[in-house]
UniProtKB/TrEMBL annotation:
GO cellular component: plasma membrane
Top-level division of the source organism's lineage: Bacteria
Pfam families in alphabetical order: Acyl-CoA_dh_1
Taxonomy of the source species: Bacteria, Bacillati, Actinomycetota, Actinomycetes, Kitasatosporales
Domain Acyl-CoA dehydrogenase/oxidase C-terminal: 238-386
Alphabetical keyword list: FAD, Flavoprotein
Entry-linked InterPro entries: Acyl-CoA_Oxase/DH_mid-dom_sf, AcylCo_DH-like_C, AcylCo_DH/oxidase_C, AcylCoA_DH/oxidase_NM_dom_sf
Protein name: Alkylation response protein AidB-like acyl-CoA dehydrogenase
GO molecular function per UniProt: acyl-CoA dehydrogenase activity
Family of this protein: Belongs to the acyl-CoA dehydrogenase family.
Natural source organism: Kitasatospora gansuensis
Amino acid sequence: MLFNPSTYDPKQFDDTTRRLLRATVDWFESRGKKALIDTYIDRAWYGDFLEFAAKEGLFAEFLTPSAADGDKRWDTARIAELNEILGFYGLGYWYTWQVTILGLGPVWQSENEAVRARAAKLLSEGHVMAFGLSERSHGADIYSTDMILTPTADGGFTATGPKYYIGNGNVAGLVSVFGRRSDVEGPEGYVFFAVDSRHEAYHLVKNVVNAQMYVSEFRLEEYPVRAEDVLHTGKAAFDAALNTVNVGKFNLCTASIGICEHAMYEAVTHAHNRVLYGRKVTDFPHVRRELTDAYTRLVAMKLFSDRAVDYFRSASPEDRRYLLFNPMTKMKVTTEGEKVIDLMWDVIAAKGFEADTYFDKAAKDIRGLPKLEGTVHVNLALILKFMANYLFAPTDYPPVPTRLDPADDEFLFRQGPARGLGAIRFHDWRTAYDAHAHLPNVARFREQADGLCALLLEHAPTAEQQQDLDFLLEIGQLFALVVYGHLVLEQAELTGTEPDLLDGIFDFLVRDFSAHATELHGKTSTSEPQAAWALSQVRRPVADAERTAKLWARVEALSGAYEMRP
């Protein structure tokens, strides 16, 4: 179930994709663990990786849609695969790729053919891109920006203002920058425009993080913006910002998976070969429980994310279900990644601090992913917008197949206005649960999911509670678990996941639902009937010694299964 460089063969993809993915793995493996760790500790810019990517045409092949180059494609399935590989070797390598994706979002959504051609050429030359949205004073609040465009007599503008927390801002061949006109009030004044970081009016201030990656602060001082540099204006610029984040936000889940996979090989191998108090560490029951919990959570992360890819690739104006599964991958999968690392860290303890381990870096970097492209709270609030239709108003859709075909996901660059989320409809979530009702913990979790529906129908949040975000976010956590289990079940059905493994996944989902119900019980604004409901939903998962032994055998087999060359 886990990515293993020693045996990796992405045979599900075409020859070009297979060659590039395998070449990427081989580049890291030939470089070795010492170089990986030393450059991380020294915060060395990863110019050697960018040279490799440029030589192989990696970013150009994976990030150029067919509309810009008919020989290439934007394929979310293979993009997700590369996310996982780059995360496996280090967040910095993933980050430079991720912010290139964000920088390209407004370009590929634009009808400006000149900038599109420029971006395609820059990619082919090995350049990376940047996304100039955030500002120090406003964060990613795109309603407010201090980047001001002043009209000039020739029909263009001069742009003056700061941007902050902009990845690749030190080397980007093209920076997509968001600002507003000085002479137009409101949303009609928004402008997205293309900037060259090598221009004399582009001033790089500093790297704002203490890390290998370069997360820049820059400032434009009367930067000349020609008409041919403008990507979007007015409400279209606002939509381009949100729709770009829709595309880029998804990448965080598979990066988190890659980080956890590498850390798991290291942690299990260490624990299984260590003797304390005369016993092998992995003979202690609590150690087996924690490592098994970490493993089942990691497998669930993969199952959910892989299935979400299918909904992205099958999206259309009539099917926007991906807009729920997107913040789910961003919020739920990445926070699960934190839990996976914490569970393993409890086992390996001091080893997790050692400088010559990958785990030490994973433990630091895994924290960042839930905090990029919007916080957990922002994404939970977004998820809540879909809850009523998802739970109570299912509709029919044709089945969404596994999408590994070499198609161009062109809809992602014509998503349209970023509104109407509450009107999006979903297929019946109960169908997937019913198909697996024979598994004890799936059945038990289904009881809890039905209980959530009963709560919302019989003791719905009052008008006052709907203004209490602290209360609503706990409802959001309960709802997110139902969605999470839904796609896990769908992917398990498509891939033939073993029943014992699937039941083990729902063991922790039952416990997690019980924990969030307990949190809801303790909220100050929770009513007495709601509090009584919360206690009624606390469940114990169904125990099964034989299943537990089979799951442990899976974890135990990871010991020595992969170790990066020195």
